[in-house]
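Tutorial handout. Part one gives the primary structure; part two gives the three-dimensional structure as tokens.
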Amino acid sequence: KAGRPKHFHVTYVDPATGRILVSVDPDDGHTHEVVTDPVTGQFSLAPGLDGHAHMEMEEIKPKPPKKEKEDDAAVVARGYALWKTAWELEAESIKKGRESEEFYSGDQWPGTTKKDLEDQGRAALTINMTEKYIDDLVGYQRQQRSDITYFPVEGSDQELADLYNIVSKVILSQCEYDREESEVFEDQAIPGRGNFNLTVDTTRDFRGEIKVERWPWDHVVYGPHEKLDGSDADYVVKDQFMSLSRLKRRYPSKAKDIERSWQTIVEGGRSHTTYADDQYGRSENAVPVTPIPASMINGDVSVVDIALKEMRVFELQEKMYEDVSVISDPVSDYHLNAFGWKKADLTAVQTIPGLFVTEAKLQQIRIVHWVGDVLLSDENPADVPEPDFYIIPVYAKKKKGRFWGRV
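Part two.
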């Protein structure tokens, strides 16, 4: 109507009752009756008392604020900084864990002492009782293993619980979970920590198959945490060595950058000597990264292995938090994440009787992959299916940031 300022109304359809509610105009307090077509079931707003009408209706489309793109080098540097911090926190436990593995394997003599005995023609005998007791413990775990079972909370949940039991059994059977679980238990018993890694494998099915697998205990570090499942940590960094050729095939668009990073690290690294008995030891032939500032990385941890021509690939999983508005209907127990909604739309919603708008923190997970000084991927947290870590620790004993096992 001429003279009336342009305005809009928000309509809300109660999901429980189907009742349709209309917001109130903040300027003069007017609203509209709802007219429902008995044939099509579609609804529209009746004209106002002054005759003005709203002919067009459209769904509210959230528009999240744009974020400035972070520089690739800054993302990699931040990843190294977080990894270094977590590594320093767990370095002593990892060192003792590796000693525990050597003790379990029968390698119980200090290197210098063993060499002195061999020089004297004396045998460095080892009576390994540790291996037997650990094997007994792992064997007991294998015999006492039980399936994961879902139970209904209410009687109406029984069919859903039965479905979960069937689906979980199929998934766990496909990824040979019983074997993976025992390997994680062995890590838990010897060095003191095992890790379950959840991933989606597209090797056999492009749609993806859920996998639960063991992740090497000393190829993952967690941010500071007290809870045994690591749920209170802010980030976790895991890594794995990957051949240079495989890296290039996996990330073809980054192949030139990966080769350049490899050459820079190797040519800029310290001089090295490769020994015949050390081809796979990643000790003398392992070169610390040089192009990355020393403050960003541990000098005693290699990022490349020259003999095997491999590079260490990192994955950072970090919790991110967004301030979001939540629209709630307590009667229908309906809650809507209104992230990206305009302030005017939220103001209109609050005029609808029974609806409330509250502020909350939305947890998301940012996943970043890099190798050397090359950023391989930086996933949008909104595209990550679950807002939680995809790797979970299992401890034998943990106290004040330290962990240890049975050895």
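Part three, for discussion. The longest strand covers residues 310-329. The two ends are 83 Å apart (CA to CA).
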